[in-house]
Design the sequence.
């Protein structure tokens, strides 16, 4: 999936590197007027250091630079720390996708950040 995404002009990935080691990454699809975050991951030993915040802010900037209306993601309903981070970054809960995740089966919370306020028109 990563190779396919990286070779697609409608995707965007960022990595976080510490001492020449990749400690985090995030990816997004750009579709029409919306960014769709596909993944955000940070090595557990590097969490709570602002890495995920920085990575997501980079994706938000790409969306703003491309005049997209919003950026959206799904998150497991049990992932409270991620939900809190996304909320802090301005994402709001806009819906639920029942049984979206497998192993274990769990609902996905759909969160969106609307960007039309952040443009310098």
Sequence:
């Amino acid at each position: 999936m990563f190779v396919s995404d990286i070779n697609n002009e409608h995707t965007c990935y960022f990595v976080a590197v510490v001492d020449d080691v990749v400690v985090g990454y995030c990816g997004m699809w750009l579709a029409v007027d919306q960014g769709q975050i596909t993944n955000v991951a940070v090595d557990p030993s590097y969490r709570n250091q602002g890495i995920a915040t920085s990575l997501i802010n980079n994706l938000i900037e790409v969306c703003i630079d491309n005049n997209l209306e919003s950026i959206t993601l799904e998150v497991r309903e049990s992932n409270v720390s991620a939900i809190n981070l996304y909320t802090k970054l301005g994402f709001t809960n806009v819906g639920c996708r029942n049984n979206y995740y497998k192993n274990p089966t769990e609902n996905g919370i759909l969160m969106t950040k609307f960007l039309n306020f952040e443009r310098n028109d």
Summary: Residues 2-118 form a domain with the Aminopeptidase fold (CATH 3.40.630.30). The helical segments are 2-6, 51-65, 80-88. Residues 43 and 66 are 29 Å apart (CA to CA). The beta strands are 11-18, 21-31, 34-42, 70-76, 92-101, 106-114.
